[in-house]
């Protein structure tokens, strides 16, 4: 199976994840109605580290700012708050890394397909928009890896759904995602081959609708991307929990120009955040406690 966002563009069949924001009648089910940073969130702005500052390319160091290209919505990685500002894990980590490098972060909203060309053209310094690091992209860009993500099922709290034994169950997914096309669909086909009942799949336009269906009892489980699942569970008032392990994992990475000194500088800044605990502190309020990196890597190394 292929993890979502491994294709060359983000919002192809496997990439459509909307911001988890429910209508007012459903806010008791999966709560993201605050349209802002989650409870317990705090801005992480560590002091600059001189030896890491010295690693930053001179042109960026002289500006005093570093810019990212980002494309919301893709909660909790990036989405807009009620004031229209882009927030989320990518922004929090990028801002913290910038602070370690002695820089202020500038966030530029862009079409996802334009972020990599903008990096090549110098319009932005790097991308922070849930990019999956893969061999094809590495031909032209280096990637600072900051999170491992995969597919993760969720179930109502206290139930016992086994993703590997889901024949005959009803599973909600977001339409057009890998959860629909490669995960649940293939599992259902296998059920039929074994002479068992197929999985009934409920496909919704957005992930929040899929999780709401689960809370309301219309589905037995949800299959979604692991950060999306974690984010929904954190806002479900204890009604949902994870079931099964994360699978089809791959690294998210910040793309920078191939061979640029910015890659090692960002890697060092991220490693500093990991070593000080600021990295985990930044992710925890978003409900992401799995897939964290022990070591900041560049192109997986």
UniProtKB/TrEMBL annotation:
Signal sequence interval, chain numbering: 1-28
CDD domains: PBP2_MidA_like
GO cellular component: a single term: cell envelope
Domain Solute-binding protein family 3/N-terminal, first and last residues per copy: 65-290
InterPro entries named in the record: SBP_3_CS (IPR018313), Solute-binding_3/MltF_N (IPR001638)
Cellular location(s): Cell envelope
SUPFAM superfamilies xref list: Periplasmic binding protein-like II (SSF53850)
Keywords for this protein: Signal
Domain of life: Bacteria
Gene3D superfamilies with a match to the protein in the record: Periplasmic binding protein-like II (3.40.190.10)
Pfam families: SBP_bac_3 (PF00497)
UniProt similarity note: Belongs to the bacterial solute-binding protein 3 family.
Protein name per its UniProtKB record: Glutamine-binding periplasmic protein
Organism: Corynebacterium kalinowskii
